[in-house]
Amino acid sequence: MKSKSTQNLTFGRKQPYHKPKAGQSGSAKAKTNAIQTRSLPSPSSSNAPSPSPPPLGLELARVTYADSFQEKYPNMEPRHDYELLQLGQHKREGTPTELRAWVDDQLQRDIKSMGTREAVFARATAVLDTIVGQMGRKPRPGRDVVHTRPIPGSKYSIRLWPGDPYANEYCMDFVDTATQEAVNSPFKFELWAVPDPDAPWLAMPSGRLYSLEHNFHIAQDKIPPGLEKWVLRDGQTCLLKRPGKKDVMFYVPVRRKPKTVHYDVELVEFPKEV
User: Fold this and answer.
1) What is the rounded CA–CA span in Å between residue 47 and residue 64?
2) What is the pLDDT of residue 64?
3) What is the pTM of this model?
4) Run of H or E residues at 92
């Protein structure tokens, strides 16, 4: 993960790392690689009176890496930011002693490259203090905003949650309506992006939508249970087609953003609806 940050924290004491709530899996073997992370510069704190929470779909990289670390190594605690960054990226096999020996070896390599231990640690901290957007991670109970609606004539529901706002991405999966447990494709269906019925003349992208795992060429029977997901776009109109049943249409929510472009013009208003 490449990132930039305008914040630097004093390194030399253990940082508070988040642990997942009880009930979250600590196994990394049940994860696919169909998760992508984008990094964005974190806002400077020099002029801001207090930090504001990131927009929906964004979070501090430290939180992302801490969650990943605890999933991959539930019986370990990172000794410092550098170890959190190294082991939080990819699952490595080995005992805690072997893993830390590997981290120490990587640290010595980076010290030779950057000159000092302090410089390496400062860089790791800067990366962790970056705001990042993720695509494909399942929502975390009690921590992420989700929208769930039952599918008519089915015991399953469609679940939507915000993805990367800068790419206007929303994620979708299916859950058991009774248990709210995520499931992979629970029945035969096709998911399509279609024109908005209220404005069909607009040039909106249309076509069949496939799961993120399908797009990464992961076979359906190789997707771990409950991890299949789809990436949609804010404001998209979607059609769920099922053999022998009426089609289901739904609209993806739109996250309102502050206007970034301002025109020095006189505004003439016409009615938006007639």
Assistant:
1) 26
2) 84
3) 0.62
4) none
